[in-house]
Structure formats: C-alpha cells, structure tokens
Design brief:
- Helix 1 packs across helix 2.
- With about 300 residues, the chain is of the alpha+beta class.
- It is globular.
- The chain has 6 helices and 14 strands.
- The protein has 3 domains: about 60 residues, Roll (Structural Genomics Hypothetical 15.5 Kd Protein In mrcA-pckA Intergenic Region, Chain A); about 100 residues, Pseudouridine synthase (2-Layer Sandwich); about 110 residues, 2-Layer Sandwich (Pseudouridine synthase).
- Strands 4, 5, 6, 7, 8, 11, 12, 13 and 14 form a 9-stranded mixed sheet that branches.
C-alpha cells in the first residue's frame, strides 16, 4: 500500500485455532492464499510483534500486523503481442484472451505471455500480484480462450479480488464435451483437490477437497458431442474440466484429463464467454462477452452441430 500503514487484527474466539494464513485469507479476501503465505515468509506479517510461519495456529487475543511491501520492480520484458481489447479505462482492461497464450510468466517460461503483452500496451499495472503477475486478478488456462479482466492499479486489484473471493463475479463459459448429457440442466457440487499421483491434475475428492459449484445447461447436442453453457459459482483450478470429466463428459481436446479425445483438436474446447462484475471505481455493473473464436466454431461443425 502506498502509505505503508500496517493492517492490524486482533484474533477473536471465533477465529482461534485457525492457521495464520487461513485467518488472513478469511479477513483479506482481496489477497490470494499464495500471496499471504509469501508475505508471511518474507516477514511482512508479524504475530505479537514476531515473525512466524504460515501454518502457525492463532489464539484468542493474538495481535497480527500485515504491511504491504514496496512494489517490486517488474523484471518481465514488454512484448508487442497483439491483444483483442473488449474494454479499457484508467482502472481496468478486459481482454479476449487467445487460446495458446499463457497468462503470466512462470517456471520455464519468461516470455510470450499475456503479462508481456500488457506491459507493452499499458503504462501502469497493479503491483499486488508481485513482480511476475502485475495486474493479474484471475487466470485462464493457457488453452482456454475468452474474457479476462486485468487491474491497472492497486485499488482496482483489491476491489476486483474481493468480488472474486465473495463470488459476486459472473463467469459463464462455453464447453464442447464428449457425448450427450442425461440431464439438460443441472448443478454439480463436488469438492475438488489435487490428484495424489498426477500432479498436473485435479480431481473430485471429499478428502481435503475444496467446495466447488458448477451450474450447466445444454445448448445443443449431436450424436457424439454436446455444446453446454457453464456458470461458475466458485473458482477452483480446472473446475469445469474436472466436474465434467467426473460426469463422464470430458471436454474435447483436453490433453491432460482425457488424451484420447484430444487427437482431433488443437486445444481444449473451453471458452470464457461472459464476464460480469462491478466496476471497482464507479460501482457500475459491467458485463462483457467474448465471441467464439474460429477454431471453436470449426470444432462445433466437425461434431455435427
């Protein structure tokens, strides 16, 4: 934060026995759990005037201070990658992300990401996400196309993050899946957790899984596939892919979960179609729609729809 004033909490009886990172994630929904853990490990969170670990159990009466460190200098190189911009003002930019574009740099990839493109296009981006994820409030998988909002300043980042955390953001996807679904519309409420063997995968599990809710309706079907609309009521990693795979209707082109359905498609047929949220400065409800890309329309025709 610009004024560098600490955020202070006193632990109540209701929050006693939580892990420190869990306590802060509950109180500060605008911060991701990974960001909170990073701040704790770096000494920017003090428990009773002492540094500690993310898994430390808090007790009633504990005093917790968090201070946002100075924004780190961004060490990602700007690249003039073309962007399809759906909306832009001084606070946010909404992108129709192309399939195949990774959102931010990570291990093994420092270039050719959306962040590289944004640094070339924008004069400022928020620093809350750290030096490798400036402006990034939420993510889409590399192979998923569609709507994505980016924060240009810290105020916008915090306000948008709160909306994602409290699930007031409207997120509607289109998915092309294998087979015909038995129900024309339904709600999937199954917990999702990391796969114990295949670390790239998530799975439906009641063991240490996190609650996840996906609402779907079938738009149309052929003998071999269905086009469905999915409305997300939570934001777990690979949520739509995992929930539909659990139903026995994997997303066509998904190389991670069902490789046998991927051979005829260049990427997974999942598109972030609509995104709605309250503008972080004006409070006005904004809704954006990303048109289906050519490869998705081609895949629909290929399965007889």
């Amino acid at each position: 934060m610009k004024d560098s004033k600490p955020i202070e909490f006193i632990v109540t009886e209701n929050d006693a026995k939580l892990r420190l990172d869990q306590f802060l994630a509950k109180r500060l929904p605008e911060y991701s759990r990974s960001r909170i853990q990073q701040l704790i490990r770096s000494g920017f969170v003090r428990l009773n005037e002492q540094t500690t670990r993310p898994r430390h159990i808090v007790r009633r009466g504990d005093k917790i201070n968090l201070i946002e460190p100075p924004v780190e200098k961004i060490d990602v190189r700007p690249e003039p990658i073309p962007l399809e911009i759906l909306f832009e003002d001084d606070d946010i930019i909404v992108i129709n992300k192309a399939a195949g574009l990774t959102v931010h740099p990570g291990a093994g990839q420092r270039e050719h990401t959306l962040v590289n493109a944004l640094l070339s296009h924008c004069t400022t981006l928020s620093g809350i996400g750290g030096k490798e994820r400036p402006g990034i409030v939420h993510r889409l998988d590399k192979e998923t196309s569609g709507c994505l909002v980016v924060a240009k300043n810290d105020m916008a980042h915090r306000e948008l993050s709160k909306q994602f955390a409290t699930r007031t953001v409207e997120k509607i996807y289109l998915a092309l899946v294998a087979g015909k679904l038995r129900k024309a519309a339904a709600v999937i409420e199954e917990k999702i957790g990391r796969h114990p063997v295949h670390r790239r995968r998530m799975r439906v599990t009641s063991l240490r899984g996190r609650t996840a809710k996906t609402e779907y309706r079938v738009i149309r079907s052929s003998d071999e596939a269905s086009l469905i609309e999915c409305r997300l009521h939570s934001g777990r990693t690979h949520q739509i892919r995992v929930h539909l795979h659990h139903l026995g209707h994997a997303i066509l082109g998904d190389k991670v979960y069902v490789p046998r359905f991927a051979k005829n498609f260049l990427r997974q047929m999942l598109h972030a179609w609509k995104l709605g949220f309250y503008h972080p400065r004006t409070g006005e409800w904004k809704c954006f729609e990303a048109p289906l890309p050519a490869d998705f329309n081609q895949a629909i025709r290929a399965v007889g729809m």
